[in-house]
């Protein structure tokens, strides 16, 4: 356990730790604000918070995809250190020949789409996508700390982002499931009900 604590405390410079803290604050404060607002615009706050986090995640995953797959380089660790290179050179950086950042890019994009959608199906879809992404991030973080013994700042930043997306989308599902807009109609349009013909 001492090795893992050392990796976390020495593998993540202050600037990156500050960015991770900011992402955590965005996710937590957006969730609290959305829950407190309730039916008076609370879900919109959660959807906007999710969209912001998704754009951050797309930026992180996109950088890694472009660097690794297009430029054929190793992602640079901000502030030095060789953790990103060690993780990239490990056998865990690819699944079935596909770089894990591509899965992240797809996941964040799908979550971004659900953040623009209303209704219970969107809430359920966003929850399960975020749950899968959160679980996958936990697995990758476990591999870094206990198998690879190196920390990639991009991976940890993505894991924090996905964790906050899980918090936001769980809040969205629990608080707003079964509330208005579940029929997919636009705001202000009333359901005419069954036809009398």
Concise account of the structure shown:
With 197 residues, this protein is an all-alpha fold.
Q: Care to describe what's here?
A:
The protein is mainly alpha-helical and 197 residues long. It has a single domain, classed as Up-down Bundle (de novo design (two linked rop proteins)), CATH 1.20.1440. Helices cover 71% and strands 2% of the residues. The protein has a two-stranded antiparallel ribbon. A hairpin with a 2-residue loop joins strand 1 and strand 2. The C terminus is likely disordered.
What are the SSEs and their pairings?
Blueprint: H1 2-11, H2 14-37, H3 42-70, H4 83-89, E1 94-95, E2 98-99, H5 100-115, H6 120-148, H7 153-176
Antiparallel strand pairs: 1-2
Helix pairs in contact: 2-3, 2-7, 3-5, 3-7, 5-6, 6-7
CATH class: Mainly Alpha
Number of domains: 1
Number of separate strands: 2
- Give the uncertain stretches in residue-range form: 182-197
H/E element order: HHHHEEHHH
β content, as a range? under 5%
Query: What is the terminal separation in angstroms?
Result: 71 Å
Q: What is the CA-based Rg, rounded?
A: 19 Å
């Amino acid at each position: 356990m001492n090795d893992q604590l050392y990796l976390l405390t020495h593998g993540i410079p202050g600037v990156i730790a500050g960015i991770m803290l900011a992402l955590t604050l965005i996710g937590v404060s957006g969730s609290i604000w959305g829950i407190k607002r309730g039916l008076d615009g609370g879900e919109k706050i959660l959807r906007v918070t999710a969209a912001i986090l998704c754009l951050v995640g797309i930026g992180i995953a996109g950088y890694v995809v472009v660097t690794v797959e297009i430029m054929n380089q190793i992602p640079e660790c901000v502030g030095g250190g060789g953790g990103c290179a060690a993780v990239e050179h490990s056998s865990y950086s690819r699944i079935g020949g596909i770089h894990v950042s591509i899965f992240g890019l797809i996941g964040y994009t799908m979550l971004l789409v659900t953040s623009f959608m209303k209704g219970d199906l969107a809430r359920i879809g966003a929850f399960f996508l975020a749950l899968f992404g959160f679980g996958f991030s936990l697995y990758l973080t476990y591999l870094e700390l206990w198998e690879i013994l190196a920390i990639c700042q991009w991976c940890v930043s993505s894991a924090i982002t996905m964790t906050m997306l899980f918090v936001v989308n769980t809040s969205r599902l629990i608080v707003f499931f079964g509330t208005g807009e579940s029929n997919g109609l636009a705001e202000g349009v009333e359901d005419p009900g069954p036809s009398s013909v």
